[in-house]
Design brief:
heterodimer; A: Immunoglobulin-like; Ferric Hydroxamate Uptake Protein, Chain A, domain 1; Maltoporin, Chain A; 3 domains; 22-stranded antiparallel barrel; five-stranded mixed beta sheet; 4% helix; B: mainly beta; Immunoglobulin-like; 2 domains; 5 helices; 19 strands; 13% helix
């Protein structure tokens, strides 16, 4: 990304018009990415005459002397630009942000193109240069190395789901961190999750991680932070890369990516596209513990079959309008390790596709961005087992989310850039559990429609040294059309009878999410920031309209469930302390945060019990019953001491505790007050080094994940015989080389020392996982 | 969906040609999601006839056996579900509710029940195949003369070792009341109906009764995985958990009346947790015999044992 921006910084749009004064020039200077004016830009002629751009970035300079004068434009944090002009010309200048230290351009935190240095928020970016060095086989694995990322994919590529969270949010659920792909929200309304397998990692240009609540701009799910995955854009007329991988457990994969940036005959028009397709199979391995293998003759390997494809395109009309579209498709079939009679045994399938259309344009002083999207996932789970008798059922669930997001930005005066927007999202689930070993069919369905509006001001003072980001968003969500009922119940489901409801109550909830943050930049390399922001996670449809068995009891649908809220206060600093020498590129980022959560959702007993066919179990409902306190700190060191060698290290501390637990039943014997949240490690450490040489490029990465509590009560788990998952460390290696830029080979070794770690069911990870691959580039 | 109209529209609207690739892909997705209607294969079920089986309209005395021989087929689709209901007046009691998997060979199995005291019993036998097609057959059984509650055997006290107790025998033949060690059970596998183990569940200590056919039992007795036959015993955990039968009632049972009536087929499992001292657990063996177990004492460690008494139909 950095290189890309550097290259692009040389681009400029020159509108030549005859001026009225013979020794004057005039025009406007704007940010090349956001189109925002850059008031205060220094405009200097080669004879020393100069001025500064005024309101709206406009300038006028006379007395430049003669024709063919070299003019220079400079602004703090942007690449300086020079061009020879003739007096009387009118120049429209687009400056590109510089790409040193704090100067990467991000869009996630504000929905406008802003430099990190101008955004008083903690943002980490993972660019393509770094991603290239990582031995990853799925998109989420890229994020393992970012500071403070709480990551879970216990069975590697064989996992049916992965979660990536941050800031003390549990790795059990994805719903407390918002996932965007090119700005489109991807968390499903049904469960809050995102299928990380859907996007091939080779399609990623960079990933922006915005820490802390971001609901002031994005609304729901942006509670612990926002992860925005930005896909590749081609910078050449045509390219094709095709290759295959093979590795541990009979893993075979192939991948093809093609694209091009095509000139269009019409001046100023441009069209690019990328298309990719992947397929991967693996025979897999036995995930279950030895004692279960011994006990269950039906255990088989957990295998993997998956295929995906994507197409993305953008047509640019002049430099003021562009239209984009994308289509993504993903289909997988994963064996989950048990087979009795069905040909493939227990499996999960995801058939997913997503369609997006977007428009970005400049109209007068306004920048408009608008996207519509449609995401669909057909989930199918086949479950069979033999205990007393044979049980076989399928879960079929269609999860659908569609909506639009829009924003309009405009600068006011020299200091303010206002952005306002309206979003709409409609999520639905239509699901049933169909039994084949009895007549039962359990249906659940529901919709959630959310309207939102926000307003944001980005203000800069003292040549942008002091920046303020203030915003406010209002979300109104309506749950409707909720149903839960059972058809032809037998002993399998008869106990659910009293919870049937073909007209679950409509429920409306609202959320107001403010943000106020400020930073001060001492120079290009040093800044401090502090801020307050609020985030929320909406209730998910699965909790609102589905009753059913869960671990520890029977869950009853709760259509009146409210969102969770998190108020976050944080401060931090970025610095590059050395101006010369080997440590010149050393970058240090540090943040500390304190968050107060309210209305956190937990399963809580209502004091009743139910017999689901194997004895009395408690009835649980999801309720907004607890307050939480989360505190933590993050530290990042990054260094490129000499060309082609880069080193980084991160440390993150998080402590997440339930500080108040409101029982809803007097005979609830559980009290979670003072308990630590599950799946949150206190300590996370990552480190890595990459070295590029003419012979082979090498990278090594290390990750330490601290111990995490297993269950809400922080008690000894009956399966793992401990109250915590043990801490573990992994080392990954990657070797790669390109031959004449036509043939690329790579060797990825994950978990070099074959460390075994387990999930809550004592299923084991894949251990050392080695994949070698070759790729042809045209 | 007729796409010719859509194409005409696109010809008339050059400005939307850009959307054509997207619409084309959408069309492909739409088409690929269609599938022809699948033909549903029919299930069928009949009851065996002959002197060994209860026939429609038979008169059977209360306490006597009703034997249903079920022959069923899924017509190419595996049979996956069997239910047998006893209907007396307005009362329907599900006697068998089980998932099965019977392929081309079909389903052939005999079931034994005890005649209740109702004047008329209707028996419905229902099967379903994997196409979810349901077939049903019915039988009327009239009340015969007199009472025919049968004799029982009383065994005990029997002390069975838990999973880590190698000193005591761990395998119990419910019919004979004989216990076997791991070293002596060879050749008797087809007779074993009960083993016991101890574990913690939901934070509670649980001395547990189970049977060789219950999959999880292999975790504690892995040698059973190699047995040629693994019997299923169904324990009425509901009656046990709620202590619906007292030890005194167990003591007083002189025929199989209580054994049959106490057993609630709707709440049974091959695994019976919380077999605490004083609990009485009705059960039914794989061959259809009703019985009851009284727990005299149960250890709370896996090296311990359970002392019990058994009453079972002869």
């Amino acid at each position: 990304m950095s290189r890309f921006i550097t290259l692009c910084a040389a681009l400029l749009l020159n509108l030549s018009l005859q001026g009225q004064q013979t020794d004057c020039i005039s025009g406007q200077v704007v940010d090349a990415l956001s189109g925002q004016p850059l008031p205060g830009t220094s405009v200097t002629a080669e004879n020393g005459t100069g001025t500064s751009a005024g309101i709206s970035g406009t300038y006028s300079l006379c007395g430049i002397g003669k024709n063919n004068v070299s003019m220079s434009f400079s602004y703090v944090g942007y690449e300086p630009y020079s061009q020879t002009v003739r007096s009387g010309e009118k120049l429209f200048i687009r400056l590109f942000p510089t790409v040193s230290s704090l100067d990467e351009v991000v869009v996630t935190a504000t929905r406008t193109g802003s430099r990190i240095a101008n955004t008083p928020v903690r943002i980490n970016t993972l660019n393509s240069g770094l991603i290239e060095t990582l031995p990853v086989h799925s998109l989420d694995e890229i994020l393992k190395l970012a500071p403070g990322i709480n990551y879970s994919r216990s069975m590697g590529i064989f996992s049916t789901k992965a979660t990536v969270t941050m800031r003390g949010m549990s790795a059990k659920e994805q719903g407390r961190v918002l996932i965007l792909v090119d700005g489109i929200p991807m968390n499903k309304s049904d469960g809050g999750g995102f299928d990380w397998n859907m996007i091939d990692p080779s399609m990623v240009e960079n990933i922006e991680i915005t820490k802390g609540p971001g609901s002031a701009v994005y609304g729901g799910n942006a509670m612990g932070g926002i992860i925005n995955i930005r896909t590749r854009k081609p910078d050449q007329p045509f390219f094709l890369r095709a290759g295959f991988d093979f590795g541990t457990y009979g893993t075979l994969g192939s991948r093809a990516v093609a694209g091009g940036n095509l000139p269009v005959k019409k001046e100023g028009h441009n069209w690019y596209y990328t298309a990719n397709a992947t397929i991967r199979h693996s025979a897999g391995y036995i995930t279950q513990p030895d004692y279960e293998v011994q006990a269950n003759p039906y255990i088989v390997k957990s295998y993997l079959k998956e295929a995906g494809a994507g197409f993305r395109t953008r047509y640019t009309i002049g430099n003021r309008h562009s239209l984009g579209a994308s289509l993504t498709f993903y289909d997988d079939n994963r064996g989950t390790g048990e087979k009795v009679y069905q040909p493939a045994g227990n499996t999960t399938d995801h058939d997913s596709y997503g369609i997006t259309l977007d428009y970005r344009g400049v109209a007068g002083k306004f920048n408009l961005m608008s996207s519509v999207y449609f995401l669909n996932e057909d989930y199918k789970k086949v479950n069979e087992y033999l205990k007393d008798d044979y049980t076989w059922y399928e879960v079929l669930s269609t999860r659908r989310d569609y909506g639009f997001i829009s924003s309009l930005s405009r600068s006011f005066g020299t200091s303010h850039s206002l952005t306002a927007g309206i979003d709409y999202r409609n999520g639905s689930v239509d699901a049933y559990d169909k039994y084949y070993t009895s007549t039962d069919i359990i249906y659940n369905a529901g919709n959630m429609g959310t309207w939102s509006a926000f307003l944001q001001d980005e203000a800069g003072f003292f040549s942008n040294r002091l920046r303020i980001l203030a915003g406010l968003r209002f979300d109104r969500a309506r749950f409707y059309n909720g149903v839960f009922f059972v058809e032809a119940p037998t002993a399998e489901t008869i106990f659910m009878d009293i919870y049937q409801d073909r007209d679950l109550p409509t429920h409306v909830s609202t959320a107001i999410s403010p943000r106020f943050s400020v930073h001060y930049r001492f120079n290009d390399n040093t800044r401090v920031y502090a801020g307050y922001s609020r985030g929320f996670r909406p209730a998910v449809l699965d909790d609102m309209c589905r009753s059913g068995r869960i671990k520890g009891g029977f869950k009853v649908a709760t259509p009146g469930l409210k969102p969770e809220y998190l108020n976050n206060y944080e401060a931090g600093a970025d610095l590059q302390p050395f101006e010369r020498g080997l440590l010149k590129s050393l970058k240090i980022e540090t943040s500390a945060f304190w968050s107060s959560g309210s209305d956190f959702q937990y399963y809580v007993t209502n004091g009743q019990s139910i017999d689901m066919g194997f004895g009395e179990r408690p009835i649980l409902i999801r309720a907004n019953i607890s307050k939480a306190e989360i505190k933590g700190a993050e530290l990042l060191f990054q260094l490129e001491p000499i060309r082609n060698i880069s080193v980084y290290a991160t440390y993150a501390y998080a402590d997440a505790e339930i500080i108040d637990y409101q029982k809803i039943s007097s005979n609830d014997t559980i009290d979670l007050s003072g308990k630590k949240m599950t799946d949150v490690p206190n300590h996370l450490i990552t480190a890595g080094v990459s070295c590029k040489t003419r012979f082979v490029n090498t990278s090594a990465t290390y990750r330490y994940t601290g111990a995490m509590y297993i269950n809400d009560q922080n008690t000894t788990d009956e399966i793992l015989l401990s109250d915590r998952y043990p801490a573990f460390s992994t080392v990954d290696l990657r070797f790669w080389r390109s031959f004449k830029n036509r043939l690329n080979v790579h060797l990825n070794i994950q978990n070099l020392f074959d460390v075994m770690f387990y999930d809550s069911k004592y299923n084991r990870g894949p251990g050392r996982f080695i994949v070698a691959g070759v790729e042809v580039v045209i | 969906m007729k796409f010719c109209g859509l194409n005409n529209f696109l010809r008339l609207q050059p400005s939307v040609r850009l959307l054509q690739p997207v619409l084309f892909l959408l069309s492909l997705l739409t088409l690929s999601s269609c599938s022809p209607d699948e033909q549903i294969r029919k299930s069928s079920v009949i009851l065996k006839t002959g002197v060994a089986y209860t026939a429609d309209g038979d008169y059977v005395s209360p306490g006597s056996k009703i034997i249903l021989g079920v022959l069923a087929s899924g017509s190419g689709a595996p049979l996956t579900y069997l239910r047998i209901e006893r209907i007396t007046g307005n009362d329907t009691v599900v006697q068998v509710d089980m998932g099965i998997f019977a392929g081309k060979e079909g389903f052939d199995r005999d079931f034994t029940f005890s005649r209740s005291q109702a004047e008329v019993e209707f028996w419905d036998v229902i099967v379903m195949n994997s196409d979810r097609d349901i077939a049903k057959t019915s039988l009327r059984v009239n009340r015969g003369e007199g009472m025919a509650y049968g004799p029982i055997n009383h065994y005990g006290p029997l002390e069975i070792g838990l999973q880590s107790n190698d000193n005591l025998p761990q395998y119990l033949d419910l019919n004979s009341g004989l216990l076997y060690h791991a070293s002596t059970v060879g050749g008797r596998e087809q007779d074993i109906g009960l083993v016991a183990y101890f574990y913690l569940t939901s934070g509670l200590p649980s001395p547990t009764l189970t049977c060789p056919a219950y999959t999880s039992a292999l975790a504690y007795y892995p040698a059973m995985g190699a047995w040629p036959v693994r019997n299923s015993t169904l324990f009425d955990y509901f009656t046990s958990d709620n202590q619906l039968v007292s030890p005194a009632q167990f003591e007083a049972a002189a025929n199989d009346s209580l054994l049959v009536s106490a057993y609630n087929p709707a709440r049974v499992s091959g695994n019976c947790k919380f077999a605490y001292t004083g609990r009485v657990i009705p059960f039914k063996t794989q061959e259809g015999k009703y019985g009851m177990i009284r727990i005299n004492s149960a250890a709370m460690e896996e090296t311990g044992s359970i002392s019990m008494e058994i009453k079972i139909q002869q």
